[in-house]
Amino acid sequence: MHGYGPMPQQPTTSRPSPATLTTVRVILVALTVLSCGLLGWAPMLRLAIVTRRPRDWFLLVVVLALNIGLFAFIMATPDDPDQMSDAAALFMMLWILGLLAGVITYYLYAEIRHYNTLGAPAPYATPVHPAPPLPYQQQHLAPHQQPQQHQSQQHQQPNPYTAPTTPPTPTPAPQRLDQVRAELDELSDYLRKENKDSRDGEGR
Predict the structure, then answer these.
(1) 153-163, pLDDT tens digit by residue?
(2) Which of 52, 63, 67 is nearest to 111 (CA)?
(3) pTM score, two decimals?
């Protein structure tokens, strides 16, 4: 059975800082240009080591063969430029320019793309411990929750030994009733008297 310990972290490829990558690229490109392509194998070698892809190793062999061929062609040409034919000079120029453009373009494109896939470098790695499964938490929380639930049920249950209290009913005010009755009697007497006086006036 497997425990609930921290999961092993997978090894990640370290990514150099942007300043370091820029410095290395500038140096390799400058060496390739200043050597007229004869050191074009240097950036391709770095690219093959960094990416570790068979295609980059194959391109390294191709560039190395082109560099050897260019060096042999330069050594075979006469030392005096006037003795070199225009076709030989044009061929050598196209060879150098094609080698420079191909090596520098592919090297920068492939290396930048490779490091972009790795992502930005993290300042530090914090270990992440996975949380235990839910049943494990319930087993530890159940003994603590049961007394609280029991106490809440005790607070909610009424006490059987205490009598229920009823709200006090308002008592009628007898004096107020007597006063109302007296006023009604006076009003009825007054109305009777008015009716009697009006009848006597009509009879006369």
Answers:
(1) 555 555 555 55
(2) 52
(3) 0.51
